[in-house]
Fold this sequence. Notes:
This protein is an alpha/beta fold. 42% of the residues lie in helices and 18% in strands.
Amino acid sequence: MIDRLDNLTSFFSEFVDSPKEIFVFPHLRLDGDCIGSAAALVVTLRKLRINASVVMDEPVPDRLHFMSIPEDLLIVFYSDEIHNYETRMGAAVAVDCSEAGRMGNSGQLYSLSKKKAIIDHHVSSRGNSGIRYVVPTSASTAELILNIIKSLEQTFGQKLMDPFIANSLMIGIQSDTGRFSFQNTTPDTLRAAAELLECGANVFVNAYHLFDATSVERMKLIAKAMSGAKMFYDGKLALTVITMDMLKDTNASEYAADGLVSSLRDIEGVMVSFVVRESEDEVRVNIRSREPFDSSAFAESFGGGGHYRAAGFSVSGASANEVCKSIIDKAAAFFSER
Ligand SMILES: [Mn+2]
């Protein structure tokens, strides 16, 4: 671990006062952990006179506007500009993901970089070019960024932590641990959170925006999706579909159903839950499970990935109903064994 941190510290140190930039790539469909971690890392690097920016496919979604990430940290990627970015780029860092395929179009730019580093906590983390700081036992990438910041503070003998960085990392931890309630929450997670609170993070405001704030549109969508849920394999598998029509009828955003998949898994007797969502160009599937159902392995068999209890995948060229059928068929192998 210390070795890998040392490697990362020297990786970043090379860019002090360099005109070349470090581009930090979060994954597509931004969440609190990837964007919190990426923003915190970029602010830290800039304090060390290292040119750095977050490069992403989409602007920060409305539900994360409360993070107040300064606009100038962020580059929204346009393919037309790729050569311009490539000239500026000195290194690329994947944050909370490990492969270009998870980044959307900006992955094209990531792939072009000759120097790469990966900072991630996904078990399915596969990318193996460059320096890897991948810790699957870490609840969040934010905790890894905190370690990096502490290591940089030691190397440079300079205080880098500030309330914005602390709160961005806290948002990452709260997001990925379900506000400290998922099984991935470790003593290290709570120690990291305690440190961040001391540095100015606000756990209460974050929890409201991440988990409690809701809208009538969302409530209506959840009600429809819940009443359409179906149970299979003696109530051990729960599945529901969110169609484009449901989004239109309720006027809810595509993120409105976040959290629904966990509620389905919480139904007594359910071992694995699936939310299958239609979108313009593909069908997206979210999975939550309890032991011994391995969500990550299941998602990987459909070309996706994630964690043991939380994973996902997407399919293009198939209808939501076809995807549901494949899921139920594939799960048969697991449930027939028990
Ligand atoms: Mn994460």
